[in-house]
Design a protein that fits this description.
Elements (H helix, E strand, L loop, with lengths): L4 H6 L3 E5 L5 H9 L18 E5 L11
Parallel strand pairs: 1-2
């Protein structure tokens, strides 16, 4: 399923589950990069406590966790 920015902003709760090392680059862009319409998940931060991101180790491999 895909979500647009409007869906993310209007949702009562947004849960995104990311699995697999092949998604690591996209997860990094989404979490650490700028908000962009090319990557609607990058707007999840604006949802505040309504957003939950669950990322397994492989998909989180490129994140700067310091």
């Amino acid at each position: 399923m895909s979500m647009g920015i409007g869906t993310i902003m209007e949702a009562e709760k947004v849960v995104m589950i990311v699995n697999g090392a092949s998604k690591a680059g996209v997860v990094k862009e989404m979490v650490e990069g700028p908000m962009t319409s090319d990557l609607p998940g990058s707007w999840m931060g604006l949802a505040g406590s309504r957003a939950e991101l669950i990322v397994e180790a492989g998909a989180a491999a490129e994140l700067n966790l310091a």
